[in-house]
Write a structure and sequence with these properties.
With 307 residues, the chain is an alpha+beta fold. It has helices spanning 3-22, 25-40, 49-73, 95-101, 104-110, 115-126, 131-138, 142-159, 167-183, 186-192, 217-228, 292-306, and strands spanning 193-202, 214-215, 237-243, 246-252, 258-267, 270-277. It contains twelve helices and six strands. Helix 9 runs antiparallel to helix 10. This is RNA polymerase sigma-70 factor.
Length: 307
């Protein structure tokens, strides 16, 4: 097997490691590309290509995350991970860990960890790496990595999200939610929401967004139906898709350009959390991005003209 073939075989795993550490599709892709450049220019072949590449992509991701932390502190409004439509890495033996770790809720929990804790947790708990491999990847002793893993696991367990187990039931409830949203059905929407439901949006100051976290079924139903009313009149379409392993949708304008993504967390037959990513910088990997500001202006004009 050539060096290129070895790398391409491991690329899905490398991306999946980087995405979980960084919470960004674009940054993860850059980290994987940098890993390839270092592998391609290496004068010697490693004993284990998997161990070598995993270590390189982890170190690159840690460095990027340390820099990104400073930028995220200055972020305008709520920061959310870039939405992931499909996780390219599949491992039947670790499918549960892989699915849980890619949800928006889990990625936001990971944000509370230090970069080293986050990397150790991802490599150990999600991908099942041994502590010798992890120690090599993060340049720490095995004992230190075990301590990092314990601390990270404790933090994650304290806030670990729970979701509805049955995938079909989740998708059916989500479909009803998005139908009610599209139709502006406040009562229908309210019936699907938990009493303490929250809605948050990430526009990054570059697109219209929720002014703050909206809490409570009545408030969320009213704000969402007001904001998304008459989507059909504006030529906006909804494409139901899994988003980070949870039910969601992609909103597109009349030119089929991406305007927004929305995902929902469901538990006990009710929607508990709604997360909307509308920052155009976070949507380019899904497809061409539309102008959310222009769409918002059209919506206001439509409301004024119809009274």
């Amino acid at each position: 097997m050539t060096r290129t073939e070895e790398f391409e075989e491991l690329r899905p795993m490398l991306f999946s490691i980087a995405y979980r550490i960084l919470g960004s599709v674009s940054e993860a892709e850059d980290a994987v590309q940098e890993t390839w450049l270092r592998f391609e220019t290496s004068s010697t072949l490693p004993t284990s290509t998997k161990a070598f590449l995993s270590a390189v992509v982890t170190r690159i991701s840690i460095d990027v995350l340390r820099s990104a932390r400073f930028q995220r502190e200055k972020y305008v409004g709520q920061w959310l991970p870039e939405p992931l439509l499909d996780d390219p890495y599949e491992d039947p033996e670790r499918s549960a860990e892989l699915a849980d770790s890619v949800s928006m809720a889990a990625l936001l929990l990971l944000e509370r960890l230090s970069p080293l804790e986050r990397a150790v947790f991802v490599l150990r708990e999600v991908f099942g790496f041994g502590f010798a491999e992890i120690a090599s990847a993060v340049d720490r002793s095995e004992a230190a990595c075990r301590q990092l893993a314990v601390r990270a696991r404790r933090h994650m367990d304290e806030g670990r999200p729970r979701f509805e187990a049955d995938r079909r039931e989740r998708m059916e409830l989500a479909a009803r939610f998005f139908d009610a949203l599209r139709e502006g059905d406040v009562d229908g929407l309210r019936q699907l929401l938990a009493a303490d439901v929250q809605a948050v949006g990430d526009g990054g100051g570059k697109a219209p967004q929720l002014p703050k976290s909206i809490v409570g079924a009545d408030n969320v139903a009213r704000v969402l139906t007001s904001g998304f009313a008459r989507l059909d009149e504006l030529g906006v379409t909804l494409e139901l898709r899994e988003m980070n392993g949870q039910p969601g949708a992609i909103f597109r304008d009349r030119e089929n350009k991406v305007i927004n993504t929305m995902s929902v967390d469901i538990l006990d037959g009710r929607i508990q959390m709604i997360r909307s990513v509308i920052n155009p910088d976070k949507l380019g990997h899904i497809g061409p991005v539309g102008d959310a500001w222009a769409l918002a202006r059209q919506a206001r004009q439509t409301r004024r003209s119809t009274g």
